Amino acid sequence: MAWNVVGSEVCELGESPFWQAGEQRLYWVDIAGRAALRADPASGATERWPLPAEPGCIAPARSAGQASGWVLALRDGIYRAPHWGGALHRIARLPYDPAYERANDGKCDPFGRFWVGTRDERPGGGHAAMYCVDARHGPAQVRPMWGGAGTLNGLGWSPDQRTLYSADTPTHRIEARDWDGERNALGPARTLHQFAPKPAGWQPGEGQYGGRPDGAAVDVQGNYWCAMYEGARVLQLSPAGAVLQSIATPVACPTMVCLGGPEGRTLFVTTARQGRPEDELARTPLAGRVLALAQPVDVPGLPVQAFEDAAAAAQDPV
Fold first, then answer.
1. Where are the beta strands (DSSP E) in 137-238?
2. Between the CA of residue 212 and those of 2, 70, 83, 157, what are the distances in Å?
């Protein structure tokens, strides 16, 4: 299938895309490049916002029913930004040591809470965790949801708001949990799909490896779309975990997907070039770009959810 390039920026590690329908713009972050970005796919106009630390994820924010900027998870905490490119205000810290752990994949649930999974950067590390940040009724409160992971990715919710999805990328496993959104209560994890591990001695450019699950999105029928890092493909899985389709990407390392565009049927994919071999980058010159599938997908995606902030009170400006 044909792909189009979105915007003008090349990222080291693109992640966390979301479509803002009211603006008809795509937002995303460059983790390694320490920046947030947004683009108008129709014109290609792109704005890059340098940040003081690696951003794991970004989401729109709302206060008293009105748009009020963005919420970002940086390496050392959760920040609010009322204005694009303006001051950041830390509203919470996550309970880990940022010397060896950082915020990674995250997004807001349908009730307005911001969920952030982390990445344990130590060799063989298994201390990454999922946190939920709730500021709907006052100052932000951080609640640990589960731990024991390597790199948490693939966060999403089913259309009926009864199932939460996530992936632990190093284990090649996508999980599902029953979820009671009102009480924010989770059931035990179950395997939605287990992918084969990377073959011993595998090198980039070789066959026989389908990649590992990275960032994801959910469509209105409950299908789970997942970027397969080092697999050069995006998968659509059914709510039961069956692979419905595999779409090849012109890069080896797609990182995260979202569904947006005027009808919610454009598949956007962020990609990575950080740490990739020179010969691979020569074969895949679009690595680091944001891509959009030229052909609309059949089922639109769920709209992005916003962070509900009771007062948008600022603290710890940086």
1. 141-149, 152-157, 163-168, 173-180, 185-186, 190-194, 212-218, 224-229, 233-237
2. 23, 29, 36, 20
Cross-strand pairs, 78: 73, 92
Q: What is the mean pLDDT of each run of 10 residues along the chain (318 residues)?
A: 96 98 97 98 96 98 94 97 96 96 98 98 93 97 97 98 97 98 98 96 90 98 98 98 98 98 97 97 98 98 96 49
| Cα distance between residue 174 and residue 190, in whole Å | 9
State whether the Cα torsion 254-46-152-161 is positive or negative. Answer: negative
CA–CA dist 212, 202 (Å, integer): 13
CA 95 to chain centre: 21
Angle at 145 between CA 117 and CA 195, to 5 degrees: 55
Q: What DSSP character marks residue 169?
A: G
Do β-strands 35-39 and 25-30 pair in parallel, antiparallel, or remain unpaired?
A: antiparallel
pLDDT of residue 206: 84
**Cβ-contact 281, 273 below 8 angstroms:** yes
Distance CA 117, CA 170 (A): 14
User: Does 180 participate in catalysis according to the annotation?
Assistant: no
Structural tokens at position 76: 């050392």
- The residue length of the chain stands at 318
Tell me the one-letter amino acid at 293: L
Amino acid identity of residue 136, one-letter, is: R
DSSP line for 94-147: -SS-TTTEEEEEEEE-TTSPEEEEEEE-STT---EEEEEEEBSSSS-EEEEEEE
Choosing from 105, 168, 214, 309, the catalytic residue is 214
Tokens 């290609």 found at: 44
Strand partners, 103: 118
